[in-house]
């Protein structure tokens, strides 16, 4: 207990850090299980978004699902629109393996 009294700034920092990390884990878990809203930027298309966000499904299936979820008539979207997309998970490459030239 003496250590906490002598180092209360460090103890406070560690405590707040623990709370912050716990909050981040909980909020990340919640958002990945729900559908997400994406604001369409200039130059976006459903096919490009399918490549970015539709990792588990084929592009055609993902685009069809987005069309149905947003009551769209076709694949036309415009900058400024906000659409609902299923389970957003960006395509992050965290493979630190060694690559051989030509592969």
TrEMBL record:
Gene3D superfamilies: LysM domain. PROSITE patterns: LYSM (PS51782). It comes from the Bacteria. Residues 36-85 form the LysM domain. This is LysM peptidoglycan-binding domain-containing protein.
């Amino acid at each position: 207990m003496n250590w906490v009294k002598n180092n209360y700034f460090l103890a406070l920092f560690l405590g707040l850090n623990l709370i912050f990390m716990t909050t981040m884990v909980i909020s990340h878990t919640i958002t990945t299980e729900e559908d997400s809203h994406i604001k369409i930027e200039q130059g976006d298309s459903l096919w490009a978004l399918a490549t970015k966000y539709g990792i588990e499904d084929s592009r055609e299936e993902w685009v069809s699902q987005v069309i149905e979820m947003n009551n769209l008539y076709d694949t036309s979207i415009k900058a400024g629109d906000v659409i609902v997309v299923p389970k957003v998970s960006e395509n992050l490459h965290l493979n630190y393996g060694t690559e051989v030239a030509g592969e």
